[in-house]
Amino acid sequence: MTDSKYFTTNKKGEIFELKAELNNEKKEKRKEAVKKVIAAMTVGKDVSSLFPDVVNCMQTDNLELKKLVYLYLMNYAKSQPDMAIMAVNSFVKDCEDPNPLIRALAVRTMGCIRVDKITEYLCEPLRKCLKDEDPYVRKTAAVCVAKLHDINAQMVEDQGFLDSLRDLIADSNPMVVANAVAALSEISESHPNSNLLDLNPQNINKLLTALNECTEWGQIFILDCLSNYNPKDEREAQSICERVTPRLSHANSAVVLSAVKVLMKFLELLPKDSDYYGTLLKKLSPPLVTLLSGEPEVQYVALRNINLIVQKRPEILKQEIKVFFVKYNDPIYVKLEKLDIMIRLASQANIAQVLAELKEYATEVDVDFVRKAVRAIGRCAIKVEQSAERCVSTLLDLIQTKVNYVVQEAIVVIRDIFRKYPNKYESIIATLCENLDSLDEPDARAAMIWIVGEYAERIDNADELLESFLEGFHDESTQVQLTLLTAIVKLFLKKPSETQELVQQVLSLATQDSDNPDLRDRGYIYWRLLSTDPVTAKEVVLSEKPLISEETDLIEPTLLDELICHIGSLASVYHKPPNAFVEGSHGIHRKHLPIQHGSIDTGESPVSTGPTAALDQPQVIPSQGDLLGDLLNLDLGPPVNVPQVSSMQMGAVDLLGGGLDSLVSPKPCIFSVSQILKKVFVRVFWSQVLLRLHCFVFLCSFGVIPTTPLPIHTPLMPNQSIDISLPLSTIGPVMKMDPLNNLQVAVKNIIDVFYFSCLIPLNIFFVEDGKMERQVFLVTWKDIPNENELQYQIKECHLNADTVSGKLQNNNIFTIAKRNVEGQDMLYQSLKLTNGIWILAELRIQPGNPNYTLKIGASLFLSLQAYRPIDRSSVYKVVLEGCQT
Amino acid sequence: MSASAVFVLDLKGKVLICRNYKGDVDMAEIDHFLPLLLQQEEEGLLSPAITRGNVHFLWIKHSNLYLVATTNKNSNAALVYAFLYKLVEVFTEYFKELEEESIQDNFVVVYELLDELMDFGFPQTTDSKILQEYITQEGNKLEVAKSKVPTTVTNAVSWRSEGIKYKKNEVFIDVIESINVLVNANGSVMSSDIVGSIKLKTMLSGMPELRLGLNDRVLFTLTGRDKGKSVAMEDVKFHQCVRLSRFENDRTISFIPPDGESELMSYRINTHVKPLIWIESVIERFSHSRVEIMVKAKGQFKKQSVANNVEIKVPVPSDADSPKFKTSTGHAKYVPEKNLVVWTIKSFPGGKEFLMRAHFGLPSVENDEKEAKPPITVKFEIPYFTVSGIQVRYMKIIEKSGYQALPWVRYITQSGDYQLRTNS
User: Do B18 and B115 form a contact (C-beta atoms < 8 A)?
Assistant: First the structure.
């Protein structure tokens, strides 16, 4: 006989009938009745009106009946809070039952009755149960504390239950320890500030012991808790890792992932050159691969986490690309994730296989998957330079299939390939143009238009092609309209004679017939640019574009580090920090990777409070300011990051201000460059950490290198700083920087290599013999081609010509001649850079007008042609600072 | 930390049974689950974790049921999925089949189990053998004898009860290796590995200490023994009962086994294996008229061995009709609902080669939709043989009563995920 019969009563007056049965004298009848009530509850009928009758059945020695009544209570107590009090007595009594199963059942159910009123009655029974002789009752009571805390946190604290929980961590029974840890972790999640778990080495040791003995779930609670611990030094980190590593062999995938989390976190603390570090990395790979033979949902969680791990430590899985090859019967979410990881692991060594796979996927039927596969081919081309050609030919093959969405996706990625490798694959443009008509998606249309515009000079009928798009201009999406506008302007600048009409047409469509403000604005900008200064227009529109970077979809490093701390959790599945999707977690402390303290133990482990980018990640050198902005807006305000330098004052100048704070934290050092006579000195402050330096490398446009090794012979203590003067010369390797006066410095110490960059005031590169012969000056000035000339306004300079001249002379900018034309002072000046480049300038000063006009040109014999205009302007900016003060 | 509530739904999204563990997610949220799922499926964005507002549904599907956990926290997703699969395992062991009917037929036990398996979102005792000692389907029995918590529940040995008795003490060891192969259309093996599994059927009295000896290469290197063939296992996973630290230290596999059947361990071997049954296929499609299929199967294993119950599944276009077959052995069958030809060979000796030809008609009006290109899949079983060469060297059984017990070993190699891509 099955339970399904309980679902079948469907007569009128059912509740009434049940009421009668619940009050029947016979025990068996009552039990049957309760089952019927529960069945009704299960199918969603409201049986709350039977509350008193059901509670009456609570006093029974039949365990099954008791469980059913408890189940009923949990469901309806909240809607009948007053009557729920009736149950309190039974609970208190059951908590003292000789049978531990009943004691545990009572304490478990008690916590699930979320009625504030009755909680206070439950404190005493709970206190007893926490000290019960039976571990089954204690482990249940431990969880009950967390339940109670959720209902009334204050009461739990006042009653000292948190201390009782902490005591249970030392319990002799591993299940009790595990549940106590789970309960404390849960409570501390809503208590951001309290260090409830009190993780100290003694407690950690207890947890590690329990780890070997408790159930698989208990192991997960303990591992998750361990991952929040910050070991005080590498030795402790290593010893914890050693005891956690065996968990990687557990059959339960969640145990494995939690162990991986602990290990990934503590890896941060281990010295990279130690044997153990290498061994541990090797041990991580096989279990991660094995997770992929689990159920699809488990695979999915594993893949999302592997995606993070591959970004954080690519070396772990770099040999394993084959396991990410897609199987025909993988669910789509597994396929897409595998594809993503394949691209991340693609390298020169495996690219042939990867491409063969991607080509295979691109012929499947699932449109989304196919698109992603095509996109992946493009990403491979951009990532693995050696494979670009193969990728392009694979894409061409795919275009030949004429499958509409494949063609469109291929064109989009080919545009990106063009942007990465300009002037290399233009021969395929003809093939692309053949497919023009089949493009119906905005992305693909825009990509094609961009290609036509960018390479207009090589496409004979570029004007016709673009014109064909123009016909339905207003039906296009904004993206296509904007691209089309730019493309036609490019075309015009390249072939002005034949395309005047076309450009006027598009400008008027964009500015007069469109409601879209972006389109209109861009239209007007082009229009004015073209009508006022075609030369500048050319420079702006056709300027060389920065190459696109290899990996565009990397997770930002601090977020990545945070996500590594959440391996296995929803955050790692969504690739979002918990506070982005958990309500009320904004005040919660964000997790971060532990920070290596270095080899010198200071006795007291420094608590880091600042942002916590991992130290052993090479820091990205930031580009200095928005170059395009400068180009368009020729305002000569002091450039970012270069504080005004008084040319008279020769003391040390801190060039970076707080600029480094954003680079490295805790910040290891600050640089300053100063100029004392003809020698350049670098001053180095070390702070916070430790450092025995191994080497020190400079890279800059002017070949600056230190001529002596860095005279730091003893390791620095944390927070110690010293000043060092370092003579420099300009005989080092030259590497063109952007901006020109950027100096990149790499410092290597036992931990890692640190990279910094700072701007050197350009004027220190002006040499003393920069004074040009008058005659030479005259000839040179005349010969400077127009495109080598720039003109600036210098604002708010209240100095007369002589003072300016004097100040500039102090910076090795020499006045060759001075003329007075129509009341204006004209200063003709020259300067020479350490690399032999001459720069000539004409400064026009109108007395009473604080704005000067400066015209500068670079010398012919060592032309600045090689540099893009933007570089020149940054050269002059520095020059002009002298003038401004 | 993990689930706020757990639901079992039927395919229409109706709640069959549920348990609210934490009370921090509105139980009515579940009504949104199935519509969201269907919507995602339609958009091709299906995912095992569905979000609505701040509620997350983590779900799995089993026969005609959805098992769903809800949460509004940053839960341990790996734990939730592992737990949902554990639910399936426990329910299946209790009710033989887990499906809509068995849930309804046993709702009282299901409630009891849900109460015992998880508390406030923390999974508790999930070993069904132990659970069966104090949660039984015969409620009446419970009153008398079994209303005590088995000490096993909280013991360090939480998977085996004391006082088990057998007249004859035996343990059966099955070593099963599954071959996973992915072969490209041009015949190159893209990836291959072996997933091995050692299963026990333990019929031993008392609390026996067992030690399993394998020809494990790492162990051989450790102990300096180098004679005999050894096997390098890439990754090993153990049942809860195996002492992991011990294995980590000296590669000893020591444990107190669960009673009855269990999977003791699994391992993965990465070595490149020759596909045991090699398939060459030519599928020629003549539009609007016919498809001709030629499949050649070759047994690439020892002559002495025989592969049993070989099934070679070859995909055919969905609009194919009027099948004709010719086989050199076994028989071929057209399964139109799966668009497959299944070629069955009862016994396939090593080194032999067989051929199958199939001919299908195609309609003159073809459907334009591009069809998927499923691979050819192969199923087989080769007894008395492991590809990796893994061997059970010994199984030591020590029990304090000192009885003699016999270990029996059996080896099987079988196909796992065995796919060969085709050209058309």
Answer: no
Nearest Cα residue in chain A from B417? A327
Q: What is the DSSP string of A699-751?
A: EETT--EESS-----SPPPTT-------BEES-S-B---SSTTEEEEEEEESS
Q: 3-state class of B331 per DSSP?
A: strand
Outline where B118-229 has alpha helix (H).
Answer: 128-134, 139-144, 217-223
Q: What is the mean pLDDT of chain A?
A: 78
pLDDT digits (tens, 9 = 90+) for A767-815: 777 788 887 777 777 777 666 666 766 666 666 777 777 777 777 788 8
What is the rounded distance in angstroms from the CA atom of residue A302 to the CA atom of residue A202? 32
Q: Bin A733: left if φ > 0, else alpha if -120 < ψ < 50, else beta.
A: beta
Burial B202-217 (b: 16+ CB within 10 A, else e): bbbbbbbebebebbbe
CA distance B17 to chain A (A): 6
Kindly indicate the confidence band of residue A676, based on its pLDDT and cuts at 50, 70 and 90: very low
CA distance A382 to A398: 18
Give the closest-approach CA distance of A35 to chain B in angstroms.
Answer: 8
Nearest chain B alpha carbon to A65 = B139
The reply to whether the predicted model has a pTM over 0.90 is: no
Distance CA A183, CA B119 (A): 11
Question: Is 0.95 exceeded by the ipTM?
Answer: no
For the ranges A23-32, A231-240, A413-422, B161-170, the lowest mean pLDDT is seen at: A23-32
Residues in chain A: 885
State how far residue B383 is from chain A, nearest Cα, in angstroms.
23
Contact B373 A581 (CB under 8 A): no
What do you get for the CA distance between the two ends of chain B, in Å?
49
Span B110-122, average pLDDT:
94
Distance CA A338, CA A306 (A): 10
User: Which position has the higher pLDDT, A105 or A644?
Assistant: A105
Cα(A339)–Cα(A334) distance, rounded to whole angstroms? 9
